[in-house]
Write a structure and sequence with these properties.
This protein is mainly alpha-helical and about 230 residues long. The chain has twelve helices and no strands. It is about 80% helix and about 0% strand. Helix 7 (about 90-115) packs across helix 12 (about 200-225). The chain has helices at about 1-5, 10-30, 35-50, 55-60, 65-85, 85-90, 90-115, 120-125, 135-140, 150-170, 180-195, 200-225.
């Protein structure tokens, strides 16, 4: 009976939300950047599923409502951008240029570093779209022969790292524009930008969306001609 309860969709869904909320409370209490709520929930869930022998496919099916809500939250970023539309007027060319340069540098740098360390083409295609959200990254890497699980983990780690290190690094470099958070750390970085302010969240959300489009267009070209 206990096993049936643990395997139930309601329990797994409640556990996921509960672990994240617990991570948020712990993060706010201790104020340590490394204790990111998403990272804490991620590690705790892996340990739980491993110890209890629960298949990931079953867990994903049980919590698919969260994927739906995540999609709605991304769409909701459009409202933030609408509120800041006056600040975005006249900035189209600088924004598109920075996103294009950021995508090119982000993709080719990780690919060339990995290749220098001996990674094969499968790994290169798996990690190339590291700076966009998981659904887009998977849709890019899988047709190129990448490993979906590797892509998902890399994207998650990049988002966490960008969320933790990004704001402090930008301040040290004297950069106040939050486009870098959205373009380098996708949704997790954008969530951090929203905590900094509405303008930061809007710009980061815009960068995240544009980065997904540009990466989807450029990575297949880079794979064919650059590595």
């Amino acid at each position: 009976m206990i096993r049936t309860f643990i395997d139930s969709d309601m329990f797994l869904l409640t556990l996921t939300v509960g672990l994240y909320c617990g991570g948020v409370a712990l993060h706010h209490r201790l104020r340590l950047a490394i204790l990111h709520p998403t990272l804490l929930a991620f590690v705790a869930l892996i340990l739980f599923l491993k110890v209890c022998g629960i298949d990931y496919g079953h867990y994903r099916q049980a919590t698919e409502i969260l994927d739906f809500l995540l999609g709605m939250s991304v769409v909701a970023l459009g409202y933030l951008m609408y509120e800041q539309i006056d600040r975005l007027r006249g900035q189209v060319l600088p924004i598109l240029t920075s996103i294009g340069v950021g995508c090119t540098v982000g993709v080719l740098s990780v690919v060339y570093i990995a290749r220098a360390l001996g990674a094969d083409r499968t790994i290169l295609n798996s990690i190339a779209p590291k700076s966009v959200t998981v659904p887009i990254a998977v849709a890019i890497s899988e047709p190129l022969g990448g490993v979906v699980s590797v892509t998902s983990v890399v994207v998650f780690l990049v988002g966490i790292f960008g969320s933790i290190v990004g704001p402090r690094l930008l301040r040290r470099c004297g950069i106040r524009n939050p486009l870098a958070l959205g373009s380098a750390a996708h949704g997790i970085g954008t969530a951090r930008a929203i905590e900094l302010g509405a303008v930061e969240g809007a710009l980061s959300g815009l960068a995240m969306a544009l980065m997904g489009i540009v990466t989807a267009l450029l990575v297949p070209l880079f794979e064919k001609f650059c590595y």
